[in-house]
Fold:
Amino acid sequence: MALDPVLARIDKDLAPATERLLELLRIPSISTDPAYKAECERAADWLVEDLRSIGFEAEKRATPGHPMVVAHADGPGPHVMFYGHYDVQPVDPLDLWDNPPFEPEVQDTPAGKVIRGRGAADDKGQMMTFVEACRAWKAEHGSLPCRISMFFEGEEESGSPSLVPFMRENAEELRADIALICDTGMFGGRTPGIVTMLRGLLGEELTITGPSKDLHSGMFGGLAMNPIRVLARIIASLHDETGRVTVPGFYDGVPELPDEIRRQWDGLNFDVSGFLGDVGLSRPAGEEGRTPLEMLWSRPTCEVNGISGGYEGDGFKTVLPSKATAKISFRLVGQQDPHAIRASFREMVQSMLPPDCSVSFKDHGASGGSQMATSHPAFEQARRALSDEWPETAAYIGCGGSIPIAGYFKDLLDTDAMLIGFGRDDDQIHSPNEKYDMESFHKGTRSWARVLDALSRG
Amino acid sequence: MALDPVLARIDKDLAPATERLLELLRIPSISTDPAYKAECERAADWLVEDLRSIGFEAEKRATPGHPMVVAHADGPGPHVMFYGHYDVQPVDPLDLWDNPPFEPEVQDTPAGKVIRGRGAADDKGQMMTFVEACRAWKAEHGSLPCRISMFFEGEEESGSPSLVPFMRENAEELRADIALICDTGMFGGRTPGIVTMLRGLLGEELTITGPSKDLHSGMFGGLAMNPIRVLARIIASLHDETGRVTVPGFYDGVPELPDEIRRQWDGLNFDVSGFLGDVGLSRPAGEEGRTPLEMLWSRPTCEVNGISGGYEGDGFKTVLPSKATAKISFRLVGQQDPHAIRASFREMVQSMLPPDCSVSFKDHGASGGSQMATSHPAFEQARRALSDEWPETAAYIGCGGSIPIAGYFKDLLDTDAMLIGFGRDDDQIHSPNEKYDMESFHKGTRSWARVLDALSRG
Structure:
């Protein structure tokens, strides 16, 4: 089956495709807020109906939370499984939106047309690029180039509580030759990227207790131990002078970057000044001797996400507090073992406690880093297909964030996952005035048409 | 005029005196929070009216902040000026109070009756011991044994911004033969104390700014500088391993304890285990090689009174924050210069900032330590009067807290100050469930009746 007429069909049908996306964006499917439960159902129903209209066997599947949508259609090539999510982030603060978040519209901007509204980029717009590519194949040739399944969840923005149980229960049905995920971005807005490295996340909260109650710093100061001082000393000791994390064994299982990937990343000419300049910074502040992209994508980190203790209001209060708390997260890569690191971190903290202080910990989740199997033939096939569509050659990139679904496909279904996305750094996902570039939507759809073609040819 | 009938009158009138104190305690005169401005006015009005009812010429005097109360009444003896403060500390965390902080009540406890509520000990209860002593003298004899003035401020818990200007402007009116201050404690709950050494207080707030806005720790973590880490490093470096403060020049002007005072303090047999045990601690945590009473009374300190930054709510948020803030105080002694130390501290912080971080400071007041003039004859007169009232002989003691007013009386008005108070270590001032022992209130009132008698006799 020829690719060119499919691409031409996508060009010709951009207006109705955009209308369909706007229709989906009008459904306020906020998963984290129970008030929007019926809207999540409505978004799932909309997708089932749309997929059936292009010949998929599609079903809404109940879970203890919001429903999944699962769809299948036959085709000659390998079996691909596409994952996306139809739920969206909350919209507050509402007053910072220029237009109502669920009254999406196409807007002209100096940088080109954009589709503006909650979910435009994360993830409804990205999800529909794949659906529209399938529609164009079907419309032009009456059939699809591969056997295609789709799997959409409605809880991605609220911690995906039903995802792993559902994948376990439906493992046979969801297993495929390759999983495709469209929830990431391009590199620098011009270079299509296939994410091959995702950092994991380990969340810890620790509370140091010194005196059994808040004290007056005049009456007790100098004699009683201050837990803020203890906490500060622990945090200060988590990095050495070169920016390395000091938790014993932390770097066990951290791989060095393969030369091939290093060359590719060097070739990306990452504009670190621009990236940092946008947030008021000028210098990379990570590990000495590492490039900025390594710091972001392939090196593990330790960050303090929050700290509190004592009097935090206006003015001054001479309290010597009983407790001080910090939330600390570690981004993990390669074969780092989150559970071993949690244990080592806790032991290190215990060993730094002075007499009369105690510590309690709270576990805020643990997932390891993941490394995609670029040796799978689909990766090079997809990379060539993307390079045909865009002005720059596609690159294997990393992603500093954590997208656990990729690991679940591998661990639960033994299915390699490939993350391809068309988002841009300025899409303002999770923030007011979220948008998705019309170019991302249009060329994203064309990209998937090309990738399906390439996968079908092998 | 005979003392005994005055003491008997105090015993007889304890119930109505307690009722008056409870009335004053019901006024939530929190000076640091602008929301309570009208309540501070109300507390001042209440005092003016009460003092007028016992024959004082009393007035509320406006300041740029909360008003002062000034009152005068004639008498034959020397001119004594009594200082107290009607403002109280904030009450958070509110959920740790067993009763609402401004619904005070008299409670029976295993250790005796207590008056429970915010301000019961600091300072409304202590202040009213003096007022009630005057009331008893007046009720019994129709006149006072000395010429008595009173001077109450409403900003003691928020750095006393109006105090020095007011004292300068009204120096003639406020000068006296001796100033009496009731805002300190007994030693060990049995030994009445005259405080002859007070630490000063230097308050600083610093805010470290890294990125210009809060960032996603996955997208930026490892590359962008985290201001909480910077702040932790600064705090951790403020003490060396022996517990000494590392701010350059900090110990300039810190005197060694005179042998005479050291002997008196050694004689007090300070129960450090009991003192620390009451607050869940077991070991002195101050400078190595110093006795516990030195740590509390005669050595300077540095404490962190509050810290905050990033996400502090329930659960977890992977934010890399833009800002982190700490409130830090120094207790000063001897000839330490608060302004020089502030400058040195700020310079030290600046020197520790990594590139891309900036710091802003807020000044929360500065006062040096002070040393009372025990050669003034009033000291020995008062010491004998106190020893008559209590089971143990009164002692000259130190006080870890900062009561700058004592220094102001000397420096601005050339009036020596004498600090006598009836607080106990377990009064929980500045904390939830503050209380004042009924015995302190009762015998404190009797003590002042005795002191006034002793001063009038010379």
Remarks:
- The mean pLDDT of chain B is 95.
